[in-house]
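Reply to dn_fold:

You asked what the input looked like. This is it:
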Amino acid sequence: MLLGTVLLVFAKEDSQNNGFCWACEKANFRCNVARTPEVALECFLEKHHDLVIIDHRHSRYFDAEALCRYVTLLYQ
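and this is what came back:
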């Protein structure tokens, strides 16, 4: 039985990304991964995830704080 959905926003695949995916699967959450803010917003609008995790380690790929603000606005 799936408990909910998680959106992971990671600019690139690495051990952190894989660890979060693994943890979601173990906890029976459906996991979607987005590599760009545009894809993340489209995915969020389509599926209304219960939890969104945004990787802020590589700020040169996208503005994680701005993406967080957009997701918050869409959630309201």
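The chain has one domain: 4-75.
Hope that clears it up.
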